[in-house]
Design a protein that fits this description.
heterodimer; A: 394 residues; alpha+beta; DNA polymerase, domain 1; Dna Ligase, domain 1; five-stranded mixed sheet; 14 helices; globular; B: 374 residues; eight-stranded antiparallel sheet; 26 strands; elongated
């Protein structure tokens, strides 16, 4: 029997990187269209930082993560929008859901960017791929009022650089075989792993654009990049064989932080805030059907020095009660200096799932779990409103 | 002080008291053994203030007296001495000369004045038990003690002399083992203590040296006099073990022992133990459970860990109840099976969130809480 002939599939630009433009601001503008075209930003007021700024605000020099006070100085007519709890993760979910109507291979990197692999879609030409991705971009704009930039290429490296090239609403296709040429004129800072410091150091040595890397010989590259020179050369040539991963990792920790409007010196007040964070984080742990074992408290002084302290329970739990007694001792251990605080944060780690060992003398825990279930249901009704609070929040 | 002693008897005596030493930093003398020579015996005593042991060994005493010496190093030396005849020669400056064959050791000691005396007992509650029986009872429950220091009440074995029986109970909050024996309990002597885990370990080690063990206790401390009539390596009289007890209220353990039996199966202990042990070989720290599945005349044990693989074991049993399955930490199943000696055990289960219960025809119960699989 003759062996089947293997027909090499021509390379197609099936790897797509999508990156939502000014994501938090775009989510807000979808709800407040009257603010379109204005200089606005999402972030903490007064003492917080800018999380996301509109392109109009960026033109004035506002960037992420600039302290809000400074942003308001350089752009006095900046409209500050507070964070809307729950909105961004909801829109993010909707965005990726739409992506999944195109291909099952969707990798969520963060709330506002990720990769798609159109390999399994049976498309046979670059034009077909481009048409599908443009249709997705239009759907995102129409259905979610979300501007998203796309890079379409043969691998993750190129598509990611391409999507960031013409923001906002960018759409850059890098045809197969032109990867090296595409990178050649770009500044080396576009490459992953090259930050501002490395970029400046390399510029001094005459390496400014990516073509400056591919033009060097082995010994020069060795002296520039040390042992990692081969990887750097491959990257500069646009080579990358990382696959698009669909399974997103489970949360490794749950955390929340708050920067105060004014520095706070009152221990009881800080303790109340930290307990509220416990109350807000554990429902998320329960919703994910996980348990957590370690609680870490972080405090930050006005001069930005900070301290953390953590402690672990004997067994992981999904209830608030075992953590309450840790709040005050951890705060005391972290907050040693006699100075007020600008920030406090609570983090739960050592996340466990799977089988839960039941306890014998734990009727109280079972009652608490039932109560917590009822509270979670009551509080999950409306966005951003807590129907029932714990006594220590009053 | 001066005495002649058999090397192996001396080594055996030191081995009895060796484990109980205090922290060197706070009270250096607690690292020492108190050696007292009188008539035709020497006594060896160690203590860490919470727990103390004293034993007596026969010796040819030429001159009475006492001294304390570092117990660990002394025991190490005595074991290695070349000749079975050992001469122990103390001097007023607490220096001891130890000779055996061609070996001579000079060891610096400390006077006995600073050595805390072991409290002796007066008219506390007192019982006498068979050593072999107490050893078996302790072995049946000791594995269930908690090692979690935050639950110090559970860091021991609960002894309850009440209602015409002695019950021994241990629990770590996830499993509970209890064994009871009938005995005469005079109303005035009824009572209970929590014997600390360390003491339980020492007591278990010391038992089986003779026929009887005498227990004295009050609400703060307990003492055991362990007869040595079966011992052939120099011990005489009895070994005296003194211990503080864990103070506090032991949880109401009776409420967690299920009153009703739902599905009861009879198991060949060793076979079941082997199957669970094999299945548990695929368990990992994150996936530490085995699933027990009962169907008509069949018991299946499965285990899996996502990053390694899975195991399946099956046993023919007599069972005609409804199909059910429940998961447990394999250690909780294996510990009682290993501690028991009977060929057959009964295992009772109800559903996936109710405890499993091991029973034997004696008054033994071991309740183990399941692992709820999401």
């Amino acid at each position: 029997m003759p062996l089947p002939t293997i027909v090499p599939t021509p390379a197609l630009p099936t790897v797509v990187h999508l990156d939502a433009d000014a994501f938090f601001v775009s989510c807000e503008l979808a709800l407040k269209p009257e603010l379109r075209g204005t200089k606005c930003a999402v972030g903490g007021r007064e003492r917080g930082i800018i999380s996301s700024a509109s392109y109009e605000a960026r033109a004035c020099g506002v960037y992420t993560p600039m302290p809000t006070q400074r942003a308001l100085r350089i752009c006095p007519d900046l409209i500050m929008l507070p964070h809307t709890s729950g909105l961004y993760s909801k829109v993010s979910r909707q965005m990726f859901d739409l992506c999944e109507t195109l291909t099952p291979l969707v990798q969520r990197n963060s709330i506002d960017e990720g990769y798609l692999d159109l390999g399994p879609c049976g498309l046979t030409s670059s034009a077909e791929i481009e048409a599908r991705v443009r249709a997705l971009q239009r759907r995102l704009a129409v259905e979610l009022q979300l501007p998203v930039s796309f890079g379409v290429a043969t691998n993750k490296l190129i598509s990611q650089i391409a999507s960031k090239l013409r923001k906002p609403r960018g759409f850059v296709v890098v045809p197969p075989g032109t990867e090296e040429d595409f990178l050649a004129p770009l500044s080396i800072g576009k490459l992953p792993g090259i930050g501002a410091k490395t970029e400046a150091a390399l510029a001094v040595r005459g390496v400014k654009v990516i073509a400056d890397i591919t033009a060097r010989d082995e010994s020069e590259l060795k002296s520039l990049f040390g042992d990692g020179w081969r990887e750097m050369l491959a990257t500069a040539r646009g080579q990358d064989d990382r696959a698009v991963h669909t399974d997103h990792d489970d949360a490794k920790s749950y955390s929340q932080q708050e920067t105060f409007f004014e520095d706070v010196a009152d221990f009881a007040e800080i303790e109340r805030v930290a307990k509220r964070m416990v109350d807000e984080l554990l429902p998320k742990v329960r919703a994910d059907q996980k348990r957590v074992r370690t609680m870490t408290v972080k405090i930050r002084y006005p001069d930005f020095t900070q301290e953390t302290h953590g402690r672990s329970l004997a067994a992981a739990t999904d209830l608030e009660a075992p953590f309450y007694p840790l709040v005050a001792p951890l705060l005391r251990e972290a907050w040693r200096k006699k100075r007020p605080l600008r920030l406090v944060s609570v983090r739960f780690s050592n996340v466990e799932d799977g089988g839960q060992q039941l306890e014998m003398f734990a009727e109280l825990d079972e009652k608490r779990r039932r109560l917590a279930g009822v509270l979670d249901r009551l509080n999950s009704g409306k966005q951003n409103t807590t129907v029932v609070r714990h006594g220590h929040q009053l | 002080m001066k005495f002649k002693i058999n090397r192996d008897h001396f080594a055996n005596g030191l081995a009895q008291v060796l484990n109980v030493v205090g922290s060197k930093a706070t009270m250096p003398i607690l690292s020492n053994v108190l050696i007292e020579a009188e008539k035709d015996q020497i006594s060896l005593t160690t203590t860490n203030l919470d727990l103390g042991i004293r034993c007596k060994i026969k010796a040819e005493v030429k001159e009475t007296g006492s001294v304390t010496l570092p117990v660990k190093r002394l025991a190490g030396i005595v074991r290695e001495l070349p000749n079975v005849d050992v001469t122990f020669d103390g001097s007023p400056n607490h220096q001891v000369k130890l000779t055996s064959g061609g070996s001579t050791f000079r060891i610096m000691g400390i006077g006995k004045e600073d050595f805390p005396p072991l409290p002796e007992f007066g008219d506390e509650k007192a019982y006498a038990l068979e050593q072999s029986e107490l050893a078996t009872m302790l072995k049946s429950v000791a594995y269930a003690q908690s090692t979690d220091e935050t639950r110090y009440i559970l860091n021991g074995v609960y002894f309850s002399f009440k209602d015409g029986k002695l019950a021994l109970v241990a629990t770590d909050g996830r499993r509970l083992a209890m064994i009871a024996k009938e005995m005469e309990v005079p109303a005035a002597s009824a009572g209970a203590i929590i014997l600390p885990a360390k003491t339980v370990g020492e007591l278990t080690r010391l038992l089986d040296k003779g026929a009887k063990v005498k227990i004295n206790f009050n609400e703060r401390r307990a003492a055991f006099q362990i007869g040595t009539d079966k011992d052939t390596s120099g011990l005489i009289d009895s070994v005296y073990l003194y211990s503080k007890v864990v103070e506090g209220n032991y949880p109401n353990y009776q409420q967690v022992i299920p009153k009703e039996t739902h599905q009861r199966i009879k198991l060949e202990r060793e076979l079941f133990q082997q199957c669970v042990h094999r299945a548990a070989l695929v368990c990992s720290e994150k996936a530490n459970s085995v699933k027990i599945k009962l169907t008509s005349n069949l018991l299946e044990i499965t285990a899996q860990s996502p990053d390694f693989g899975e195991a399946h074991e099956s046993m023919a049993i007599g069972y005609s109840g409804p199909d059910l399955q429940v998961a447990f930490n394999p250690q909780f199943i294996l510990d009682p099976l290993r501690a028991l000696a009977k060929d057959e055990v009964f295992f009772e289960v109800k559903d996936e969130v109710s405890p499993g219960v091991f029973k034997t025809l004696e008054s033994f119960v071991c309740v183990i809480m399941p692992v709820r699989l999401s």
